[in-house]
Amino acid sequence: MDVCLSSMQQPGRLGEGLSSPGGWLEAEKKGASQKDSTGGALEESNTIEASLHSLQTFVPTDYASYTQEHYRFAGKEIVIQESIESYGAVVWPGATALCQYLEEHAEELNFQDAKILEIGAGPGLVSIVASILGAQVTATDLPDVLGNLQYNLLKNTLRCTAHLPEVKELVWGEELDKNFPKSAFSYDYVLASDVVYHHYFLDKLLTTMVYLSQPGTVLLWANKFRFSTDYEFLDKFKQVFDTTLLAEYPESSVKLFKGILKWD
């Protein structure tokens, strides 16, 4: 079995020794230091150290309970820490469907070194799979879920992906020019799964999708269709994106679309 995590690195309840993000990161640093002292690769240690610091920006929310869910995509065992106390800390059907598609079409998509942003990354499964497939990933979500997101990303990608994913806050439709200036950020792919459901921010979501799409950007959106509002959003999506239905998963009511922004 090909796994990225050692037995010491299995995620658990926050605050329990090495199972906590802080405790596990400290152990990684200690291990890197010991490697240096025994003649290991100093440059690799410094890279890991810098990466660890960059990913410790967000403090995980202290949910009362967590579960560990196991997935296997792209030849890797992936362990995701979830909590039913937050919509953003659970893997939803659209995410697993999108991961399945990415795995099955890896050669066609050619994620190697591609720049990818995920909207509404949640606990991070899609971003992890994209990273394993070789992409340079930026995983985004609301502030309250970023701690758990970065925790899952780091645990499943450190030392086993070409690029460590970045975690950034993204509030749909707000301060996009400031936080993601087009002069500095462009993406080959924008990924989104189960971001459309019964909430009041669908117009802001569409605005964000449009903003992040530049010439050449491919948007892959997977969603479980539950309500009439989901289809209403799809109609609006089709008005601004050339839309292709890539796959359907009847067992989960998930549809997967490819969108290319229409340019006048």
Describe this structure in words.
- The chain is 36% helix and 22% strand.
- The protein has 264 residues and is an alpha/beta fold.
- Helix 5 links the parallel strand 3 (115-119) and strand 4 (136-141).
- The longest helix is centred in the N-terminal third of the chain and has 17 residues, at 21-37.
- It is globular, with a radius of gyration of 18 Å.
Question: Could you say which overall geometry the principal axes of the C-alpha atoms support?
Answer: globular
Please state the CA-atom Rg, rounded to the nearest Å: 18 Å
Oligomer: single chain
Low-confidence stretches: 6-24, 27-39
Q: Give the topology string: H per helix, E per strand.
A: HHEEHHEHEHEHEHEHEE
Q: What's the helical proportion of residues?
A: 25-40%
- The first-to-last residue Cα distance is 50 Å
With strands numbered from the N-terminus, the spatial order across the biggest sheet is 5-4-3-6-7-9-8
What count of helical segments does DSSP give?
9
**Count of extended strands:** 9
Summing up helix and strand content along with how strands pair, one would put the structural category as alpha/beta
Portion in strands: 15-25%
Largest sheet: 7 strands, mixed
Mean pLDDT, all residues = 84
